[in-house]
Automatic annotation (TrEMBL):
Protein's GO biological process: homologous chromosome pairing at meiosis; meiotic joint molecule formation; meiotic strand invasion involved in reciprocal meiotic recombination
Gene Ontology molecular-function annotations: double-stranded DNA binding; recombinase activator activity
Keywords: Coiled coil, DNA recombination, Meiosis, Nucleus
Domain spans labelled Homologous-pairing protein 2 winged helix: 12-74
Name this protein carries in UniProt: Homologous-pairing protein 2 homolog
Length: 205
């Protein structure tokens, strides 16, 4: 027997005993082999001898069902649980189960809301894609020449607007020099309407 195998055989009883105590449920030898083989590499012969040794020492219990042996931790080592403790555990289980169901319901509701929002966003994106497609396919785009023409006309009309406003201001100021009433009264009597009356502002050049 190699040194590695000898070490595995020596440590097998402790590994199996600790596993059965932690899990505290029945296991067949094959089940334990599947659960512990990858981590500890216990062979069939080593595992069988270790389980039989633990059973003989009374550290675990062994039950035979047909051709299969079942092993579980000796329950005498565990503290007795009273009916009150069991009822308390049952109450905790009920409370935790209700909490889990509530969380699951909340998750389902959130998932439904998220799916609804996702669908709305997809619909909105589809609308934008269609709009972009139509814009790209349109033949009536504004050409640079047309844009320049519109800008020039705007400049022309703003210049004329500024010129006429200055002329009107100079003329009204000349009249007001000999007018006995206020500028506001003069405008009201003559019927002059200003840009300010309509909250209109001359655009910047």
């Amino acid at each position: 027997m190699s040194k590695v195998r000898a070490e595995a055989a020596a440590g097998a009883p402790g590994i199996l005993l600790r596993y059965l105590q932690e899990q505290n449920r029945p296991y067949s030898a094959q089940d334990m082999f599947g659960n512990l083989q990858r981590e500890h590499g216990l062979g069939k012969a080593v595992r069988t001898r270790a389980l039989e040794q633990l059973a003989q020492q009374g550290k675990i219990k062994e039950k035979v069902y047909g051709k299969q042996k079942i092993y579980f931790a000796n329950q005498d080592q565990f503290a007795m649980v009273s009916d009150a403790d069991l009822q308390g555990l049952d109450a905790k289980i009920v409370a935790l189960t209700a909490k889990v169901q509530s969380l699951q319901q909340g998750c389902r509701h959130m998932e439904a809301e998220m799916q609804k929002e996702i669908q709305e966003l997809k619909k909105e994106c589809a609308g934008y894609r269609e709009r972009l497609k139509n814009i790209k396919a349109a033949t009536n785009h504004v050409t640079p020449e047309e844009k320049e023409r519109v800008y020039s006309e705007r400049q022309k009309y703003c210049k004329e607007w500024r010129k006429r406003k200055r002329m009107a201001t100079e003329l009204s100021d000349a009249i007001l020099e000999g007018y006995p009433k206020s500028k506001k009264q003069f405008f009201e009597e003559v019927g002059i309407e200003t840009d300010e009356d309509y909250n209109v502002k001359l655009p910047d050049p």
